[in-house]
Amino acid sequence: MADQLSPDEKLNLITRNLQEVLGEEKLKQVLQERELKVYWGTATTGKPHVAYFVPMSKIADFLKAGCEVTILFADLHAYLDNMKAPWELLELRVKYYEQVIKAMLESIGVPLDKLKFVKGTDYQLSREYTLDVYRLSSMVTEHDAKKAGAEVVKQVEHPLLSGLLYPGLQALDEEYLKVDAQFGGVDQRKIFTLAEKYLPSLGYAKRAHLMNPMVPGLTGAKMSSSEEESKIDLLDSKEDVKKKLKKAFCEPGNIQNNGVLSFVKYVLFPLRGEFCIKRDPKWGGDKIYTVFEEVEKDFAEETVHPGDLKASVEAALNELLEPIRKKFESPELRKLSNSAYPSASKTSQCFTLTSSSKGCQDRRRGGGGGENDELVPSRLDIRVGKVISVDKHPDADSLYLEKIDVGEPEPRTVVSGLVAYVSQEDLQDRMVLVLCNLKPQKMRGIESQAMLLCASIEGDPRRVEPLDPPEGSSPGEQVFVEGYETGKPDDKLNPKKKVWEKLQVDLKMSDECVAQWKDKHLMTKLGQITCKTLKGGNIS
Question: Origin, by domain of life (predicted)?
């Protein structure tokens, strides 16, 4: 295909869907003379996740345009970045990355014989490279090095010197890999501009830089290997994919920070040229889109429902993941995965102390407030609440803004997406269930101070009902799970621990419409928590 493309057509293919290009004139000049040499590097830290399909789809574009592409497994960088990869695991992590990246490329039809794979320590420990590191460190200021790595290197209170070396090494890689351009995310822009500033000072050519946008994770923020709930692992089961997509941020009509919609734009369309929204005939039936902007427009106008979008992405994503899952069913690769990412010990040093040690109690519980490591439902502060007012969100017609009395001096503000399911009249003065110890979160500019709990049916996203406390309940009454009546809720659930997300997986409605956690009833002192019609539904 590349032989039939003009230089301009190649440039269009190379730069499509990129957020920014530095040095476009250089690209044009090279393409007039020969094929472009480009590299993409990945630090071998946490397990690659589905957002890696974004650079993979661009690599497919580069190959279609005739580029000579090098993939760098940056093992030394993984160690320098606050030791995200321990030295003793570097070799295993590189092997894992190589196997999983190759499996991803094969799943999207990229021929591996067109690619060159390089490990960083194969050349970064050489005499010449090491001398260049020293030469560069004599020129780069501490300010420039820290600024360059601000969005890439892990930021800590007392940074290590290794993190300051990281940007300079990435700049030198351009010379030692003999490329015309480096490709990466827009979060690496400051490293790219450092390379453009300092490589000529070493007598090396300034390279071009190609930058992908940062695709939002499932929570609406950057997808991260270290944030379990923000990403879908490449080896996640179909059940896990469904579960994570179900909880993904995908507000009706909201096209900003929408990780589900971004995956359609930056992965599925470049790879397939079309996208099919799968839905029940009573809601219009399946619809095939050949232009992403039409999907975005229909979603913004709420012609496409978030549940239908999620279900369609789930089907397309599982098609991409299935060959990877099958490849890693082999005993050798399962062993590699377990060796490269051994499970962290759940036993902390604290537990070797006596139970009467105050220091142990403070470390286990965060200095007081009920935050321990045991995953039990009594850690959730679920209360009966009364909706005392309900209005449309001033900046989002798809959201309600509710004031809910939960037995405190002032009502709590709750932002919910119930507009499509429950009328304002039905919510007004209704008794509901509220999760009160989540960290407050801003939703379209207004802080939501709690979560209204509802039942829903998997596979039918249009059926949602608020949970009902027993008749005669009063605001502020505590909700508990049978057998866990005496536990004390955390003051605030630590979002990094994902306590709610882990417990929520086992919250279900029984066939009698009774709320349960692991088959034990949710109750107040007056009786069981129920919903009206959603037998076997999920609770969220």
Answer: Eukaryota
- The whole-number pLDDT of residue 219 equals 61
User: Rounded to whole angstroms, how far apart are CA atoms 10 and 22?
Assistant: 17
Backbone φ and ψ of 49, nearest 5°: -125, -175
Q: What is the mean pLDDT of each run of 10 residues along the chain (540 residues)?
A: 86 94 96 96 89 91 94 89 74 93 92 90 94 94 85 68 86 96 93 94 96 77 51 88 86 86 88 88 87 92 90 93 94 91 50 34 35 77 93 78 89 83 87 92 85 83 86 92 84 87 90 91 92 90
* In the block, residue with structure tokens 């039905």: 426
446-448 and 441-443: which strand pairing? antiparallel
What pLDDT, on the 0 to 100 scale, is given for residue 345? 42
Burial class of residue 62 in the structure, from the number of CB atoms within 10 Å of its CB (0-12 exposed, 13-18 middle, 19+ buried): buried
* 340 membership: H or E segment, kind and range: helix 331-340
Q: Which two tokens stand for residue 534?
A: 């959603």
Q: What does 345-364 look like in DSSP terms, one character per residue? A: PS--GGGGS-TT-HHHHHHH
Dist. CA 468–CA 433, nearest whole Å: 7
Which amino acid is located at 192 in the chain? Answer: F
Neighbours of 132 (CB within 10 A): 20
Q: In degrees, to the nearest 5, what angle opens at C-alpha 207 toward C-alphas 201 and 210?
A: 140
Tokens of 225: 């290997």
The span from the CA of 415 to the CA of 393, in Å, is 8
Give the orientation angle of helix 90-107 with respect to helix 331-340, to 10 degrees: 130
User: Using an 8 Å Cβ cutoff, are 377 and 391 in contact?
Assistant: no
Both tokens of residue 256? 């900003």
Token output for 489: 């809720």
Q: Would you state the pLDDT for residue 25?
A: 95
Q: CB of 448 within 8 A of CB of 415? A: yes
Complete edge-to-edge strand list for the sheet that includes strand 20-22: 20-22, 208-212, 181-185, 37-43, 68-74, 115-119
| Cα 114 to Cα 101: distance, rounded to the nearest angstrom | 14
- Give the H or E element holding residue 39: strand 37-43
pLDDT at 159: 67
First to last CA, the chain: 49
- Global pTM reads 0.62
Q: Which amino acid is at 402?
A: E
E strands, 305-393, where?
A: 382-393
CA atoms within 13 A on the CB side of 53: 31
Q: How far apart are CA 371 and CA 365, in angstroms?
A: 5
Residue 141, judged by CB atoms within 10 A of its CB (0-12, 13-18, 19+), counts as exposed
Spatial CB neighbours of 300, under 8 Å, sequence gap ≥ 6? 253, 255
Position 355 scores a pLDDT of 34
**Could you give the angle at the alpha carbon of 374 between the alpha carbons of 370 and 376, nearest 5°?**
85
Q: Please choose, from the candidates 237, 262, 236, 240, the residue with its C-alpha nearest in 3D space to the C-alpha of residue 249.
A: 262
CB 85 within 8 A of CB 270: no
